[in-house]
Write a structure and sequence with these properties.
Elements (H helix, E strand, L loop, with lengths): L4 H6 L6 E5 L3 H10 L3 E4 L3 H4 L11 H14 L4 E5 L9 H15 L3 E3 L7 H9 L4 E6 L5 H4 L9 H17 L3 E5 L3 H10 L4 E4 L7 E4 L1 H4 L17 H17 L12
Parallel strand pairs: 1-2, 1-8, 2-3, 3-4, 4-5, 5-6, 6-7, 7-8
Helix pairs in contact: 2-4, 4-5, 5-6, 6-8, 8-9
The protein binds 5,10-methenyl-6,7,8-trihydrofolic acid (MHF), 3-methyl-2-oxobutanoic acid (KIV) and magnesium ion.
GO molecular function: 3-methyl-2-oxobutanoate hydroxymethyltransferase activity; magnesium ion binding; methyltransferase activity
Catalytic activity: (6R)-5,10-methylene-5,6,7,8-tetrahydrofolate + 3-methyl-2-oxobutanoate + H2O = 2-dehydropantoate + (6S)-5,6,7,8-tetrahydrofolate
Pfam family, one: Pantoate_transf
């Protein structure tokens, strides 16, 4: 049965939520067939699909292109799409229109946007339009030019308090779930216990209500950088390199194709 927003909310304190990114049909198929709860069409596609050094350049048209392909590959998972940098920050009417385009043109289920109390009016307006919103606190990569690095957030008392308060603000604004990225595990635990919507951690320890990782990171396919929170469950880049090298060798040696791969 297809997973819905109410089902995700209901999983808090009952069953851990599994979430993974996907940017195309083939990866979405794999995640969905494996039984993932949520697929995120992350703006991390800037790094993984486009080779950029931040998520800043991604456009609404580009996430829509990827989200359409993901939709084709997923039958059961809930599909959440990241709202790109500057598609929701300037004014809330533009934010509603962009969130609406994303849902309407892709058939996906919800949007995610980064930020705390400053975005309460934006989030509540998008939700009022009938579009479910997932929040994102802690390390918010679209603010890389303010932060200056991708280091963990909320390590001092003042920032920890701000993030914890922001989680409450997001809950009041009507988010159905909150991603907590790169924060101390104790802070993530306190937030998880203080809000009534599920938290989904990435680099936030074991006490969140769910976990999310980038598909290409956890399968060892992407290695431009490797945050501490990434666990490699496969080594696909090594497999792919070995495969392509073997193919080249056999082509050069006239060993491929044999009659098995020829029309006789
Ligand atoms: N492939 C990929 N995976 C991601 O998890 C990811 C993206 N891209 N793009 C968007 C953001 C950027 N992210 C990042 C990028 C780098 C670090 C990183 O280098 N972290 C250091 C922090 C060290 C510290 O806090 O002291 C690390 O070593 O973990 C973390 C998250 C997470 N997101
Ligand atoms: C890392 C996750 C949470 C994300 O926002 C992304 O992939 O863009
Ligand atoms: Mg993102």
């Amino acid at each position: 049965m297809a997973i819905t927003v109410p089902k995700i909310k209901d999983m808090k304190d009952k069953e851990k939520i599994s979430m993974i990114t996907a940017y195309d049909y083939t990866s979405a198929r794999i995640a969905d067939e494996a039984g993932i709860d949520i697929i995120l069409v992350g703006d991390s596609l800037a790094m993984v699909m486009q080779g950029k050094s931040s998520t800043i350049p991604v456009t609404v048209d580009e996430v829509i292109y990827h989200a359409k392909m993901v939709r084709q590959g997923a039958k059961n998972a809930l599909i959440v799409v990241d709202m790109p940098f500057m598609s929701y920050q300037a004014d809330y009417v533009e934010a509603i229109r962009n969130a609406g385009r994303i849902l309407k043109e892709t058939g996906c289920d919800a949007v995610k946007l980064e930020g705390g109390r400053e975005f309460v009016p934006t989030i509540s307006s998008i939700v009022a339009a009938g579009i479910p919103v997932m929040g994102h606190l802690g390390l918010t990569p679209q603010s890389i030019n303010i932060f200056g690095s991708y280091k963990a957030r909320g390590k001092d008392e003042a920032e920890a308090t701000k993030i914890k308060e922001d989680a409450k603000f997001l809950q009041e604004a009507g988010v159905f779930s909150i991603v907590l990225e790169s924060v101390p595990k104790q802070l993530a635990k306190e937030i998880t216990e203080s809000v009534n919507v599920p938290t989904i951690g990435i680099g936030a320890g074991v006490h969140t209500d769910g976990q999310v990782l980038v598909f290409h990171d956890m399968l060892g396919l992407f290695d431009d950088f490797k945050p501490k929170f990434v666990k490699r469950y496969a080594h696909l880049k090594k497999d792919a390199l070995d495969g392509v090298k073997q193919y080249i060798k056999e082509v050069k040696a006239g060993e491929f194709p044999t009659d098995e791969h020829s029309y006789l």
